[in-house]
Amino acid sequence: MDGVEDAPTFVLGGVRPGAALGMSWGPGNRIAIYGTKYHGHQEKDKHPRNGNIRIASWDRSIGVRRKLISESYGPFLALQIAMRQIPQTELRYRTRPLVTACHHYRTFAREVSSSIRDKPDDPQSLALISAQTAEIALHLAEIIFLTPLVPAAPCMFDWLEWHFPIDPTEAGADFAQLDRPESSDAYWHLIYRLVMRGKMQEARRLLELHSEGGNAFLGVVKDSLGGQPSFQLFFSMFGDWLCRMPAVKGAFSSPDQLTKFKQWQESLSEFAKAHPEHFQEHNELALIVRITQGNPHALAEVADDWKELLVASLIFCEPEMKTGYMDRLFKDCVDTKPQSFEDDPLGMLCDAAFRNSVDDFVREVYELGDLWLTAHLLDLLHHRGILKPRLLPEHNITQRQHALFEYAYGIATDDVNPHVIVEYILESDIPNSGPLIEQILSRIVPLRTERDARKMTALLEKVNIDEATKRRILHRVNRITSRAFISRGLVGPAIAWTISSNAGTSDSVSQHLSDRLLDSVVLPLAQVDLPHHLNLVRVVDSLGLNHIMAKYVGLKFLRLYRDVCQRWLEGDRVETLRLLVEAVTTSDTPRRFWLVLLRDCARLMSDISSQTLHASGVTSHSILDLMRCLEEVHQSHDREQLLSGFASKIAIKLNDSDAMVNIDVEIEEIRRSLTQALSYALMLSGQTSAMERRFV
Amino acid sequence: MHSFFTGKNFTHICSIPRPQMTRDCFFATASNKPTSALEVWVLPVNSLEECRGPLLLERVSLASVATSLSFIPSNSGALPDMIIASDQAGRITLFHVDVEALGSGTALKEVSSIRPHRGAVNGLDVNIETREILSVGEDGSLNLFNLDSMKLIHHVPRASESSLQAAKFISPNEIATAASVDQICVWDVRSGGLSPSATLSELSAQTSGAVAAAPNRVVLSLDVHPSKPWRLCSATSGSPATPAAIMLHDLRKIHQTDSKSPPPFFYSTVHESHIWQAKFHPVVADALLSCSEDGSLFLWDLNALNVYENPSATKFGREAERVQAQKLSSGSLGLNAFAMDPDKNCAV
After folding, report:
1. Which chain B residues contact residue A454 at CB under 8 A?
2. pTM for this prediction
3. B160 in contact with chain A, both atoms CB, cutoff 8 A
4. What is the pLDDT of residues A557-587, one digit of tens each?
5. In Å, how far are A80, A325, A464, B333 from A84, measured between CA atoms?
6. Under an 8 A CB cutoff, do A420 and B333 touch?
7. A1: distance to nearest CA of chain B, Å?
8. Measured at the alpha carbon of residue A676, what is the angle toward residues A672 and A677, in degrees to the nearest 5?
């Protein structure tokens, strides 16, 4: 089969051999492909077993698309803000931002077209056509719907020149090569078209290419021009008359300009009447004069299509016509050039626009299937106040809401800034958009780093979504970030993000993480003697928990112990001892830290004088509490567990009998130091009888 | 100020100085959307008037999203120009750049790659004089490499119990790092220790008097004044309780005080969201630029702060209020990074 290429094949991972494949279109450039394996051999016995779903995506000129989406976001947002600020009654002031936004959109669409056109190898012709169509439709909507009361001729002249230009340069160069260009039909046809479009300068340049001729006409010209020999001169002179036409852009903006235009038409007519024989001899020139006089037959004769006819009619016949009242003229032009209208792919769109039928126009825009165009165009029409706010029956939302939502959902891929997507959904004002935003963000926002998480939270702070949704999304972000930290063994930030994910409340996970933090990070550092606790202070400070340590039970002890170390480093032994005693006796302290803390207390008490002990506010009752803790550890049934932290300090194992002896020695030393401190405390307070009782 | 949309999302950007060749502005970007890539662009100077966008000259795909870029110029000519890139997978990759061949498709060549971090590399700095690379990452580790051999010189596995967000050479022997907590650490490389030599902490409380329960600011970017290396600039994250701040610290004071961190001698909360990058102008004295998630790029004129250098000055507080911040741009989308071309005095 010559000319038929093999169908492209690809291997889809994860789909079982023999599975039935199915697919479903997803948002943006995604497609879901699923395979289902059936049991049973007979058709009637078959029942589905398990299915696998794979998401595939394809490159769809993403760079260009992202550019368009990113660029149009700014003007879109600016328009929404402007429309909220300007009252609906101030139509005059509302028009300007609408037109500005439309200009921006058109420019972006044009940039897309040109960037695709610059790469002719890329198979993106569909995208090119779509961008060009979008530009044409936006321009038409701007002329007819956004500014309906301005002179139509210059607007439509712009529209035609912008989207369907003719460039006489190349053709002119070709004609210049010919000896007698005037003998070519194409030469005259091009001149007619330029005149029809009011491009008189270009028309004159072509007329000047006319050869010297050598026919009888030359002699007549010589006579009429006072003996001047050049045949070209007459054409040049005629060209000059043409060029005296006021420029189309701005020619009809005021009555004075309009008068000047009419005077030019009359003067050209007079010129033709003054030299009837010349024009009779040269029918082409006569036809040009008839075109400039707005002769409908002449216009119909030379117009290529209905668009050219419409613009020429506006310029030469109806220069006073306003943009919103072109329906009759448009109908006449279409009737005159029906074939060109039928061949025009945008014919129906133009028909709806010129008939001023917003509903039909919107329907045609929908037909184009360009989500970007539909959303932005309907938004413009909505703000102009001409889009009917009726609800779509199947969705119960308005057309604008539907278009903006469709667009936002369509661009919801991971290559588009999530901020843009959220803003479009929010601006669509569709009810109950929160869960939808949540769904989209959870799918497309990568949370690979802490920065990603911060970006996401910043986005949520900026956008105006309901609190419940915001909380849910934040919960998810915090949870994912917390897990990432756990996987890297950074428990401190994991706790902070976990607590944040629970709206600032501590749960079992954060409790578990707090325990893990104390065991894996703090306990090993606490096992060295107090003079070496600089490292502990630094580590605790770098956990990122300063703002929550005072609030949560699992972390209160950590804060207290950090303060103990800090005071020690500052040389404040009095305060160190006071805090240490508080750390042991407070209910938040995990029991496995008791022995470490008691050891520090005992050493500190043995080093300091009785005055210092008194100054620290440590009373005999406090020391008795410490001793009670020590006895509790020593005699507790879970002694091994309580001693585990302490045991590792001296690098021993609990099942080693020698090690237990060492621990017992250490406990005995602590007990002795505490007893000594107690005696000091009792003496200082005068409670000797109590001391005696104790020793008894 | 001109805006050009390229259809890509840039995570980082660096300038490529080529003064001898052309007036145009060359720069390299790291993009993560639509795909991860390292790209070299040219922005023709005359295109600023014509509003034409930058042109893509070179592109190399990357396996992971690049988080930071640095351009290393060839000083002697013996070594080629280089771009060093770090990424979210914890890799640091060195590319040779043949500036003469830009546009040919072969100007960027990967020469070596190492993976010293578990998780993203958040901060990267290069000391061209000592030919050393400094990197810090999401895993809280700090690494110092030799640029030519890519051999590890110094490694601190737990420089912080949180992720490290930024790092900067203060001098050949001193490094500043910022963890995702409220502190900046200064490290003395000569000591080879695993602990910082000094710490600037409780920055939030010192500047805004933030209550203890408010979430702390996180320092996201660090930079050192090009001619006054004792001036360290930090840019932080922001929240409704503690707005994002630009701070200037005097590093001479951190060794003078005993335990309390000296407060920053200047801070401002002009930005409305996280400040992703702050950088001193490499040539213009006392000019600082900062960009933020709120889409703004500010130019700070810090000339008024020079009175601070005079010990007898007593009106410093009032002078600090005179520091002018000029908004160069404001957009609806956040700014991730910027680069300055010192020759053209142009921020990209």
Report:
1. 218, 237, 274
2. 0.69
3. yes
4. 777 888 888 887 777 777 888 888 887 777 7
5. 6, 30, 15, 21
6. yes
7. 39
8. 115
